[in-house]
Fold this sequence. Notes:
The chain is of the alpha+beta class. It has a single domain (57-209), classed as 3-Layer(aba) Sandwich (Protein Transport Mog1p, Chain A), CATH 3.40.1000. The chain contains four helices and seven strands; from the N terminus they run H-E-H-E-E-H-E-E-E-E-H. It has helices at 6-23, 86-90, 125-138, 197-209; strands at 71-78, 95-103, 112-119, 145-148, 157-164, 173-181, 184-192. The protein has a seven-stranded antiparallel beta sheet, sandwiched between helices. A hairpin with a 2-residue loop joins strand 6 and strand 7.
Amino acid sequence: MVYDMVPSRAAPVLLIIVLLLSAGCLDRLPVAPAPATQNAVPTPVPTTEDPQSTMTPSAMALQLADLPSDYILRDRSVMVSPEVTQLSRDLGWREGYFVSFSRMNKRDDTTRVRQAINIFPLENMKKVFDLEKIDIESQAVSPLIQSEIPFPLIGDNSRAYRETDPTDAMKQVAYTVIFTKKNVYEKITMAGTSTDYETLKDVVQIAAAKVE
Length: 212
């Protein structure tokens, strides 16, 4: 019968397996490599930077060393509520500080740099900036000529203006830069008979770096 032939066929196969085991051949059979593990994705570390400034207004004020050596300190002081507009108070004005410097390289030089620092609630900063921008632009009445000028981006929002008066015999120029950073609004002006756009850029960038 067919069934009687199964043992006779299986015997040679069993014999071959036994011979392979005794010779160690099966030990050398290739082993499938373990599946590669994917590199773990690093967990992002949350930033701890405070969205509001931790500095006092006086600590953010420009120092004499931040200006060219031919400038002197003219005035610096805290601001009080009656000195700011009603609109600023409505927007939650909290405190402020100002400082001014004059250039003294010539007897008839009237160039002055002034910085005003104001603290507002963080949620009102965009509104503060927009309204201050409108206020500056509305002050350019004839014969004054006001132009918005290219300027490096400062803080979160910034604008820079140059103003001249064609009827002025002394040909004075006035620059105004406004910017917000965190919950701080600053206005820095340079005006007089020997203004310097490049110096103004340096001074404004130094001022913005003090907002921490």
